[in-house]
Write a structure and sequence with these properties.
The complex is a heterodimer of chains A (about 575) and B (about 350). Helix content of chain A is about 70%, strand content about 0%. Chain A is built from 23 helices and 4 strands. Chain A has helices at about 15, 30-55, 65-75, 75-110, 115-120, 130-140, 145-155, 165-190, 195-200, 205-235, 240, 250-260, 265-290, 310-340, 355-395, 400-410, 415-430, 445-470, 470-480, 485-515, 515-520, 530-540, 545-580; strands at about 110, 305-310, 430-435, 440. In chain A, helix 2 (about 30-55) packs across helix 16 (about 400-410), helix 2 crosses helix 17 and helix 3 (about 65-75) crosses helix 13. Chain A starts with 13 loop residues before the first helix and ends with a helix. With about 350 residues, chain B is α+β, with helices and mostly antiparallel strands. The chains are: A mainly alpha (about 575), B alpha+beta (about 350).
Chain lengths: ~575, ~350
Amino acid sequence: MPNDTPRPAAGTGLADRLPSFLFPRLSGTALTGIFIAIFLMGFLIFPVLQVIYVAFIDPRSGGLTLQNFADFFGTSLFRESFANSFYVSAMSVVVATVIALPLAYITTRFNFGGSALIQSLGFIPLIMPPFVGAVAMSLIFGKNGTINLMLRDTFGFTIPFMEGLNGVILVQSIHYFPFILINLSASLRNIDRSMEEAAQNLGSSGLRMFRRIVFPLAMPGYIAGAVLVFIKVFDDLGTPLLLNVNNMLAPQAYLRITSVGISDPMGYVISVILVAFSILSLWASFLVMRGKDYATVQKGGGGLAKRDLSTREKVLAYGAVIFILLLVLSPHIGLMLLSFSTIWSFAPLPDGYTWANYVRMWEGSQQYITNTLLYAGLAALGDVILGTAIAYIVLRTGIAGRKWLDYMATAALAVPGVVLGIGYLRTFQSVEVPFLDKPMAQWWVIIAIALMIRRLPYALRACMAALQQVSVALEEAAESLGATKSRTIRRVVVPLMTGGILAGFVTSFATAAVELSATIMLVSSSKDSPLAYGIYLFMQTPSGRGAGAALGIIAVIIVGLGMYLSQLIIERDKKLKTSGTGH
Amino acid sequence: MKTKMLGIEIDDLHLAFGQTKVLTGVNLTIKPGEFFAFLGPSGSGKSTLLRSIAGFGPRPQGAIRIGGKDVVDLPPWKRNVGMVFQSYALWPHMSVRENVAFGLRERKVPGADIARRVDEALDLVGLKHLADRMPNQLSGGQQQRIALARTVVIEPQVLLLDEPLSNLDASLRVQMRRELLTLQRKLGLTTIFVTHDQEEANTTSDRMAVLDGGVIQQVGSPQDLYDRPANLFVARFLGTANILEGTVETEGGRARFRTKTGDSLSLPDGVGAAGKNIVLRPQNITIQREASRDALVGTVAHREFLGGQIRYLVTSGGSEIVVDQSHRSGRDWFEPGATVHLLANTENAVVL
């Protein structure tokens, strides 16, 4: 693992011979911190501020104005888009809750054989970029999809699962419900058994107890998951775009910028609204959850008591779980079928099966795959380097303002991909890349940087967690034995963090590989396109769908393998650390 | 608050977690209004026994009768048995008042009555002024009292306390155990107190049961159990005991205990003759320089100054004997390595 911390000044450099007020002595870590701060300012803060600024500027006169916002709300299409985005996000939370709540409840409250199934299969949706599944979902749930064809043949009616906004809601909630499942299950598991027993002891039981004691205690976890789902759906561009639902905010921003042009203020106004909503939702959830850290599990005490199920309940539980899992896995199943199909149209299942799509995909998209490996690899590498450095500076040094590095990096969470893309276009269109004679906004490296900024908050959390597990005493021991700060970091701290850093790298890589929102804005030629954009292009034509699905399968495999690998690394690392302590 | 005085009878109770037997053949009668302690090391089954009275854990075999009525088949919420949890289990999302009112709400008590009874209960534990706080704003001792108020407010048939003092610091523990006893006397509520701390059991309980390995070893008042332990486990578990192996012999019409190492100790009349062990409490042994009849010869191996007492560890004939001498300033000490003679006061000795 390379380390970007410069060694301390050698002592005979130029700086020593100049007056010290010109070159204040800074430690290696402080210099690193300053470098990172400048980088984040340049590639995150400034572009976003630029977007916000443009939204308040009159495009003709150049003066500050609220006219753009007035125009926005004065246009019925935008008002409708705004309402649609809000409605779709809220409904996705509702549907995701309906999917996640029974799964979380069954796994945490009962001795249920299917729990392991839920634990593993329940997270599979996350390994598929939602827009990839969208087309497959249309084939299964669409107007002429498998389900509706069968319904029409047997019962003579159809259900508009995929009509307009419904489709977006269905795809998004199936994709994002694991956020609620993970958080809610964790919360439920963190409730001490005595919380429930005390209630029973005082005369409460059943649903009433669930409503008065168990659910309120699990509320923080639920809200954390629900807010995440809301924001993700509100900001998402790929899914509505692929489902051809354009009357939502993110697609409108994309369409305005790509069709009307970079100087059209509406894209910027939408960006401001997206950012504001992200921040507002996070802030509201913070207000609701303040002072509500309900983790009540005691040392030695177990979580909630698990009950055995009667045979009838078991059948019911398995039925519910299998139904939900089938629903949740339908994009994968559909995608798989589509990728092997000759023709799949107006039929419950494909007409025939073939390898041809894979051959075609391979011939047409090697460039996409190499690009993806390059961009996502660079982004992930940058993420863990920045993440490790920021984690170290924040947790282990007393440098003034160190918290701001953390805040800045984490702020990327509230910046939708579309907004970052627009910001980069606006900011770097006028910056020439030296020797290449083209604007930076059209250089492929900017895509890698965008991916890196987008994934940085997650990588940073992974690095911080890894660093927190390295005792300060280990570092002090090295220093007391004569190692300098930078040698200690390189020889003791970073090696001990390896597991966490590696896991962060793999996760960043896998998720960056399928990111569409930011990249779709920044791809300037198909030669520079990554995989996600390739899928998007394939899916634009009915004849390209098979190959697009095949490419989608590649994407799923990359992300799935990545997630599996990172899990493996974390597990192995954990085992290594616990066996080392001699328990 | 109304006073109910109900007794508890436990009849041949067996309980297992899967294949592991946790309670075996427990028989116990707790009198109405009694303050009763379950004392035992961890894993002895004392908490499991308490929890089965409250209705938690697997269904046991046998009977648990509260006021004559078998409750084994009742779910916890129908037993009307008050339990204070080791962790207090105050619900963090409810204020103190809401916590205390919970049980009354579940019983559909009218609102005005709830308010009055909650106030009474909070008054009882002296924390009425904290009614609107949230649990995480309270100290450990306050949380404990709120947990107690929340339990007694429903006027339970009996009160169960699961290691209620173990999460408090030492000085507060002493204060709280007095308060618990005062409260229990005031309410006259039949109370069971689970603890692994013999001092807590000794100072609070009218009677106690010592448990080990899921079996009740002995039941009686604290003094009874200390003075007349029924077996070696109880003798060792309560206080410090020197246990010497040997046999009871009769010499000139009087019983004597001959230790394995050949020393002989006189025994009072009426001591059980069958035992192979004599239990001597450290404070019943005198340590002296001079030899005398019936004295054991030994060497001081170790000395600890405990304040009021000096504790000597004396090696005598291959066994180590603990001797406590009360400390008075000016009196000289026996140095480690010194040869000493131990004179046992066997008047209250127990042979097991």
